[in-house]
Amino acid sequence: MSLRRRLLALIALLLAASLLAGGLLTYWHGTRKIELEMSSAIAVGDNALRDAVLPFLPGPISDGQIERVVSTFDGDRHLRATLVTSDSKTKFQSRVRPPADPAPGWLQRLLTGTPHSAELLLPDERGKIVLQADPLNEVTEVWEDAKLKLAIVAGFCTLVLAMISVTLGRALRPLESLSLALQQVGGGDYQAHVSESGPEELAAIYKGFNTMAAKLADAEVQNRSLNAQLNSIQDEERAEIARDLHDEVGPFLFAVDVDAQTIPVLLDRGATADVSARSQAIRQSVAHMQSHLRSVLSRLRPGMLLDLGVSHAAEQLAAFWRARYPAIQFDIDCSDESFGGALDETAFRILQEGTSNAVRHGKPAHISLATRKLDTGMLVVSVTDDGGGLKASERKGFGLSGMRDRLARMGGTLTIQSGTNGQGVCLRAEMPYMQPARRPSAEHRDTANNS
């Protein structure tokens, strides 16, 4: 059942209960009124009867005089006078004025209580005059009054129900629009919008929905943009790795192939000294290719470097960029402690992205990498350079956005400050750290370095 029908049903039930209570109250009031009227009518009639008979006493009373006394009650609304002989036979009886529209018999039986009557004994054993209260007119009067009141109450209830139905319909109509809008949002259409009209409470809900839909739409646009940037970055990284392998590994592979083809020729000639030199050259080429492949793998998967701590990973990162930009001087001030895999990887990614941005955009002569614990329970990771600064358009790049999202998930923040006169950039990240993990042993570090 809909909310509107439930509310209307509840209100209708309350109004029906009010009608029932009103009917019971009317019944109670009607019985009291009829009882009071009949008692009063009998009392007044008894006094009137005695006043009418008293002038004829103590002398004899003729039948005509008695009938005239009884007939004085003709047309009375509440009383009926009856002349009863000494042998209990009805000799003469007055007529009660009937109502124009009498009440139903069931109502008369319901409202009428104990019959009211009075008697006056006549002298000379002439019998008696009996007064009886007839409640029909009074019941009819109560019936007409009850019908009018119930009609008014019923009309009022109908009007109230109609007004409430219209008001609820107007107030809840936007909820139907909200339901359709929610279905649209659930289907991926974030352009859904509802009118912010109606009661203050519902208007706040509509406003909140519109705000949510707008933020979801913005998030959808941002996700599409980030996906496009991610695809672009991935393509660039693939192209860069392909060029790197072609430029660094390709020539050495060619040299190894030439040396390997030359060795059989030298052996046929008996030039053993040259064969040894060629073998040494092959070993040097293979060592260079192994070193370069390890450098590439460390860029793709830093987990192996992080096994020895952020400090070791930062050293390897600096070595990678020194090999390509020998003029850049690197200062490293990183803790040897490990704060857990997730935190170590986040710290390294920040150092990696900050160094990459500094080298690519700033052309610095000096880069400083640092990690530091604060007494407040925060780990600070910073990358500072003295290059040409970071343009406003570059502050919203994919890499920085990715770092902000990563830090936000860990409860951290990222700030970027430019140096004096726009020279240099300081990238600073803060995130809560966990209890320091156990440092790898010296034997483990030596084994890893040798491998």
Q: In which order are the strands of the major sheet placed?
A: 5-6-7-9-8
Instruction: Label the structural class.
Output: alpha+beta
Number of strands: 9
Global geometry: rod-shaped
As a percent range, the share of strand residues is 5-15%
| Helix run count | 11
How far is the N terminus from the C terminus? 73 Å
- Helical percentage: 55-70%
Main sheet? 5 strands, mixed
Average pLDDT figure = 80
Poorly predicted residue ranges: 435-451
Structural overview:
With 451 residues, the chain is an alpha+beta fold. Among the domains are: 3-160, no CATH class; 302-450, Histidine kinase-like ATPase, C-terminal domain (Heat Shock Protein 90, 2-Layer Sandwich). It has eleven helices and nine strands. It has helices at residues 3-53, 63-71, 105-111, 136-186, 200-269, 272-300, 303-306, 310-324, 341-362, 398-409, 442-450; strands spanning 79-84, 90-93, 117-121, 128-133, 329-333, 366-373, 378-385, 413-418, 425-432. The strands form two sheets. A five-stranded mixed sheet has the order 5-6-7-9-8. A hairpin with a 6-residue loop joins strand 3 and strand 4. The longest helix has 70 residues, at 200-269. The radius of gyration is 55 Å and the shape is rod-shaped. The chain starts with a helix and ends with a helix. The model is unreliable at 435-451 (pLDDT under 50).
